[in-house]
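To whoever picks this up:

The nightly regression suite flagged Radical SAM core domain-containing protein as changed. Nothing in the input moved, so I suspect the structure step. Input below, exactly as stored in the fixture:
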Amino acid sequence: MLDKYPAEHIIIRPPVEAYSVLIAVTGGCSWNQCKFCGTYKGMYGATQDYAIRDLKDVLKDIDRAAENNYHGFPV
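Regenerated output under the current build:
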């Protein structure tokens, strides 16, 4: 069942962080050498397993979260 969902959509975090803002600045795994994990292999193409988002896109996400008053908490 989990293979139907991209890894970035599976979020596991402590309940105390339930309402914190999550803004992705990278995707995949920068290490990506663990023998037991194939989660990010080829995620961004045959040879790319890690990607860094453009700063302007990250800043847009921060502004959007602030404008929408994310869960009533300041951003």
